[in-house]
Amino acid sequence: MIDFCLFGAGLIGSVHAGNLARHPKARLRYIVDPRPEAAQRIAAQTGAAIVDTETALSDPSIRAVMIASATKTHADLAMAAAAKGKAIFCEKPIDLDIGRTDQCLAAIEKAGALFQIGFNRRFDPSFRALKQRLDAGEIGSIEQVIITSRDPEAETEEALAGGGGVFREMTIHDFDMARNLLGEEPVELFATGSCLVLPYYAKHGDYDTAMFVLRTASGRQCHINNSVRAVYGYDQRIEVHGSNGMLRAGNRMPTSVEAFGSEAVSRDKPLYFFVERYMDSYYAELDHFIECVLANKKPDVGASDGRKAMILCEAALASAKSGRFEPIKF
Amino acid sequence: MIDFCLFGAGLIGSVHAGNLARHPKARLRYIVDPRPEAAQRIAAQTGAAIVDTETALSDPSIRAVMIASATKTHADLAMAAAAKGKAIFCEKPIDLDIGRTDQCLAAIEKAGALFQIGFNRRFDPSFRALKQRLDAGEIGSIEQVIITSRDPEAETEEALAGGGGVFREMTIHDFDMARNLLGEEPVELFATGSCLVLPYYAKHGDYDTAMFVLRTASGRQCHINNSVRAVYGYDQRIEVHGSNGMLRAGNRMPTSVEAFGSEAVSRDKPLYFFVERYMDSYYAELDHFIECVLANKKPDVGASDGRKAMILCEAALASAKSGRFEPIKF
Amino acid sequence: MIDFCLFGAGLIGSVHAGNLARHPKARLRYIVDPRPEAAQRIAAQTGAAIVDTETALSDPSIRAVMIASATKTHADLAMAAAAKGKAIFCEKPIDLDIGRTDQCLAAIEKAGALFQIGFNRRFDPSFRALKQRLDAGEIGSIEQVIITSRDPEAETEEALAGGGGVFREMTIHDFDMARNLLGEEPVELFATGSCLVLPYYAKHGDYDTAMFVLRTASGRQCHINNSVRAVYGYDQRIEVHGSNGMLRAGNRMPTSVEAFGSEAVSRDKPLYFFVERYMDSYYAELDHFIECVLANKKPDVGASDGRKAMILCEAALASAKSGRFEPIKF
Amino acid sequence: MIDFCLFGAGLIGSVHAGNLARHPKARLRYIVDPRPEAAQRIAAQTGAAIVDTETALSDPSIRAVMIASATKTHADLAMAAAAKGKAIFCEKPIDLDIGRTDQCLAAIEKAGALFQIGFNRRFDPSFRALKQRLDAGEIGSIEQVIITSRDPEAETEEALAGGGGVFREMTIHDFDMARNLLGEEPVELFATGSCLVLPYYAKHGDYDTAMFVLRTASGRQCHINNSVRAVYGYDQRIEVHGSNGMLRAGNRMPTSVEAFGSEAVSRDKPLYFFVERYMDSYYAELDHFIECVLANKKPDVGASDGRKAMILCEAALASAKSGRFEPIKF
């Protein structure tokens, strides 16, 4: 049994709290959140105590921390937890700044802390099965990867202004998936972005509609397409083409019901957004983390994966301005 | 090159005429139809001459006849053509009366005429591929067959009154398919019919909605469901369950277009009716007939298949009244 | 918060125990099972105490019982729990004997006990959505229902010999679904069964392969097909045809991965069996029960639904012998 | 009735010859091909006469020419036919050289000749339906287009060496489709190509695996992915994302048969290659051409569409070398 402290009682914190409650080898002991009512809601459901950071990290019975607080607090919390010998599960990104990220990685490394980054899509049952079949050589040598990743609804202008921008908040997951599936590190990245959905994306120097091409040294290619608004729901699909065929994984639908009417045949649109679509992956990533902590094993997706995905975001921002393949230097 | 005479210039006659025009080894020479304008329409497109029955059958250059005229003329035309040594392609049924059917079969047999009955569904590319895979043993021993067969639109009362009834006009195709797929002759048949669509089906002692169960001596089972009205289009599907799995074949859609909208994901409803759905099968059955004529080979689906399907219709009519398994005596 | 006692720590008892642990308004307090090791396994995971029936039913803090023990104990436990004022969730069937079932229903009625029967399929998300759309009139008046229900693997001969037979153990769920979807009570039932899978089904006077037709007074029809062995997994599908179209619900697959290879395009076969396929429905039926207990509301599926499904089983057994529509007398 | 002369009796010439034979308003009168046996094969099937270019173009009864000969002969034949007042159907490309293409366009323009280019995919039933629904505004304003276009099998080295290269021979169709679907002309194009399939593509300075991004002035984006070898068959798919949803069109399969086995559920892989996949589109483009000739109407896809697609090929070749968005100047 592993005792946890959860930092952050927002939407994603609640998802993790629920999974901790379900997991037979985890116990949620503490919640840290500056907003009392949010913390209180989770505490009531789980019986965890609301404490401050100092108390939580000083309690030697707390073996693991779950960092789901505001992005700007991630690096400090991770470093503090590492210093206290805790195992760390941290939502992405580690930090929006590469310098701060590197500093945090160095501290984690020095402390020898077990660290897992919250790239939950790697644990989606369909994407994971696809990856395992790739690794087993089912379609031979990988040649092209195509990632479709479209949010159902744009952020509010307020959220957009307060965040790291679309590439760093949204595409970062796709960049991690590209690295994961290409089987080789990308060395060049091309990006182009437009503002076709809402004018305030342009106002904030951002893009609501974007396409990307990545390329590895051996010539493998990856395309990503993004939109911040797909009215038919969260669209998350992957295709991998190899020398012996194609593997693809698609969306999840609420039900299997099909209606045959006088105009058309219709079925459910995909599940609404990430909480619904990736519900199973949040549990699976927690399960992987717990398994790693118990076996003192390095998680499949660690701090350097978080860092590399951020470097791809930087290259994408540069390319969207330069109109050319930008080199990637990890 | 085989010279044909076509009897009947109605809807199905036109389909056959078009296929004869396309087929590299067939030539449509004569058309016989008491309705001049129908015959004229096909003649104009194909260059065939409009003649009477006597002229057509007496011309020794005519090697094959295509009988697509009114049902009550089938047996006489088939017997006359057989007497003249023609190869015969005859739309189903041979006759609505079993006695007349037997008389016709005897005449065909005596003349040694090559005879193919128009059970076109056997030549549908999907159903035929399914049958070939069954025969190749892909799913082991056959256990259950499920046939869905639903027309898009009810007949007019006039057409209903003038025809042989729903079982003999519509279900007969399903009975043939059941025999074809079960791999053994059925020995018992259960039927139940209702009038849920249009009151005039009841008025004419008929059923617009029906279910059937057939059973072979070894215990294989087949279910058929029928409706005369499926607002979403012609619904023609087959499932065969065997000891090693299931094979199924489905509907055909006009296009592969899918629309992902804010309410649902929708695609085309199935093709409207038999001419659209079975367009390829009409060509394929003609091709099979021509191949048989050229090789003097017995067609895969002959006069006795037409007769047996009619006997199943009789058993179905009896069962729908008796409420019990009726024995089948071929 | 509702305190529960669970009777039966077998496969299905474990599923219920897991769901009780997850449910925010339930607490599993006691486990009763004559097999100590099975009870111990659940106790270790949940913290529940292992007690005897007397202790559990005498504890006034226990508000609800979950009966998942051997079939022959259901009626006695339900009557004892009813006498103590407990809310009762009981796995189907109440009893294999209609007389005992009626006696149990009378006792429950007399005690005014809240009673829900475990027809979990009614709570399957897809089947429930289909039913709600039927009730909302989406496809107009119901005309035909087609239920496909095939187990992945036959029972052992020992299990078969010790159980109530295929119709009472397996088809009973389909009969309940037929009643649920037809929108009218069936008045006649036809059944035919064969032994095509394993000889020991015949030896025990049972059938491993069966087809059914039910009919309501107004002429609505329902077909059910069953097999005890579908090598491709648990096959659970529903089609409902109405005056304005068709609604259908299908199987669930483990992942959405599709492989495009040089021979074919392949995807996952359906989930293995009922625990996997109906995982969500077990949680949903528990949630409904808890909601009913808290609101003192009659569950959607009660004791008389259990009784009526058993009567349909009796009619099916009679029809499979008589070869005719058997009348149904509820 | 329109009398045609066909130039070129190769694979694509045979397809056109078959469609001319089927079309009720067309007659194939002449075939011109330097290879006597190829011409003879088509002549035997259709009854057309084998003549030389001079004879064919000088016959005033020939109203239309079908140019399906070697690429390098297209421009001369088109100019000669235009000078004689023939309507011209010309396979793409007009010429691999933009200068020659411009010269040919000027001659056609000057002669006032009706000219249709063989971008057959525009006439594919699914792609055409998708385009019509886009034009009808079904998904609002177009934002992104994604084109998947993968051949089943690489060319031989000989064919590659003798042709115009992969971009000009294969991608040209996708570039035309991109222009057709974007609803605005592209102004920038990015391309990257690799040699992952066969070394001789590199040897000839070509690419067997490529990705493209096009962009219009308003910021609409299009991605194309190409491979010269998809072992699962010809992969031709389109997705268009708009402000109100997505429309997509997929591959065509030989049959609808699905096999449910103990390992997986499998269905047919897509049809093998362009002749099978686009069989209907070849007929439909001919039908459109004939309709235009009869009505003296400008075809939907003309000489300037052929020229613009070639210009996109040039930009793609430049971008694959420069690694940057290349401007497009039509």
TrEMBL record, chains A, B, C, D:
Gene Ontology BP annotations: NADPH regeneration
Domain of life per record: Bacteria
What does the UniProt keyword field contain?
A: Oxidoreductase
What residues form the membrane-spanning segments? none
Domain GFO/IDH/MocA-like oxidoreductase per the UniProt entry, residue ranges: 127-248
Q: Which residues form the Gfo/Idh/MocA-like oxidoreductase N-terminal domain?
A: 4-119
GO molecular function (one): oxidoreductase activity
The cellular component terms of Gene Ontology attached to this UniProt record, alphabetical and capped at eight, are:
cytoplasm
Q: Which NCBIfam families match?
A: myo_inos_iolG
Protein family (similarity comment):
Belongs to the Gfo/Idh/MocA family.
Recorded protein name is: Inositol 2-dehydrogenase
Q: Can you name the source organism?
A: Rhizobium altiplani
